[in-house]
Amino acid sequence: METPPPQFASYPRGQAPTDTAMPTRPPGVYFDYFAVAYKMVMKNAGVYVVGALLCIVISYAVSLPFSLLANYLTYGSAMGVQQYPKGDEIFGVLFKQLAISGVVQVIPSAFAMVLTYGIALCAIEEADTGSTTVNTLFGGFRQFWPVYFACLMVHVLVTLGVYMCLIPGMVAGAALSFAPIIAAKEGCGAWEAMRISASRIMPYILPMVGLTFVGGIVVCLGICACVVGLLVSLPVFYIVVALHYRDFRGQAQVFTP
Predict the structure, then answer these.
(1) CB 188 within 8 A of CB 181
(2) What's residue 90's pLDDT?
(3) Does pLDDT of 152 surpass 60?
(4) pLDDT exceeds 60 at position 10
(5) If you average pLDDT over residues 79-87, what whole number do you get?
(6) Quick one: 174 exposed, middle or buried, by C-beta within 10 A (0-12, 13-18, 19+)?
(7) What are the distances in angstroms from CA 69 to CA 18, 56, 83, 123?
(8) Which of 43-52, 56-65, 121-130, 243-252 has the lowest mean pLDDT?
(9) CB atoms within 10 A of CB 50
(10) C-alpha 119: how far from chain center
(11) What is the pTM of this model?
(12) How far is CA 103 from the centre of its chain?
């Protein structure tokens, strides 16, 4: 067969569709994915609800010693404040607590993000192949350092943005929402994953900010409904992110399974 000319050279086109794969859409922001995500959670609760429970339990276990350290650095006692401050002292103590906790909790918070983004990896696998297992929840640990540092930098940038009147944090969170997934699925480093995420999402940044804001409300409502609600709302949010990643991944044509 004749070799095609250079302008028609082959290039990676992503994962070929299968009979069980969920169809992708053109890149964009789709709020109806919340309903799709809820159906996925209800259909495969053994993965998503159990996965969310594992994320919460493991994240709390990792975070606990850092919380005790933050208390000790703030109050001089691992168990927290011994005598509640009065008057103007309260503002100084609260500011000190916020600053110390923000620094100390960076490490466990990024680790928790690695775990929770595992829910997104499960959703991508199910959407691509028709099934997934709890084992995929720990898929981020196969590329741990790139995924961890992507989570770490995203967490830091979002936290700093929140301190800068909230809006910059919302924009950073939306623009970089694919970064940990890209680090896990596309075999690149943390900085490159962040760059790719931002380049794909920035043309749609305003509706994406709205999507992540609604997702945050969904998670908060789950928290208000105690643990049971969070076990459903947490997977819904990350499944929505995962489904959008699949749509944008198809356009980028760089997916490496």
Answers:
(1) no
(2) 64
(3) yes
(4) no
(5) 60
(6) buried
(7) 50, 20, 18, 35
(8) 243-252
(9) 15
(10) 9
(11) 0.83
(12) 20
- Among all chains, which residue has been given the structure tokens 């760089």? 254
- C-alpha to C-alpha distance for 89 and 130, rounded to whole angstroms: 57
**pLDDT given at position 69:** 83
**Phi, psi (deg, nearest 5) at residue 229:** -65, -40
98-112, 159-173, 223-237: which range is least confident on average? Answer: 98-112
30 DSSP 8-state letter: -
Residue 178, classed as helix, strand or coil, is coil
The region that residue 226 occupies, defined by phi over 0 for left and psi between -120 and 50 for alpha, beta otherwise, is left
What is the phi/psi pair of residue 147, to 5°? -65, -45
Beta carbons of 153 and 190 less than 8 angstroms apart: yes
| Separation of alpha carbons 144 and 114, rounded Å | 8
Query: Any alpha helices (H) in the chain, and if so which ranges?
Result: 33-43, 45-75, 89-104, 106-129, 144-163, 167-175, 179-185, 190-201, 205-224, 226-252
Residue of 15, 10, 4 lying closest to 185 (CA atoms): 15
User: In whole angstroms, what is the distance from residue 129 CA to residue 148 CA?
Assistant: 26
- For 84, phi then psi, to 5°, come to -65, 130
The encoded tokens of residue 230 equal 């969070």
CB of 70 within 8 A of CB of 137? no
Cβ–Cβ < 8 Å for 208, 177: yes
Match 């596309």 to its residue by tokens: 186
Q: In the numeric block, which tokens belong to residue 180?
A: 């940990």
CA atoms within 13 A on the CB side of 227: 8
Task: Give the length of the chain.
Answer: 257
Cα torsion through 21, 18, 195, 235, rounded to 10:
20
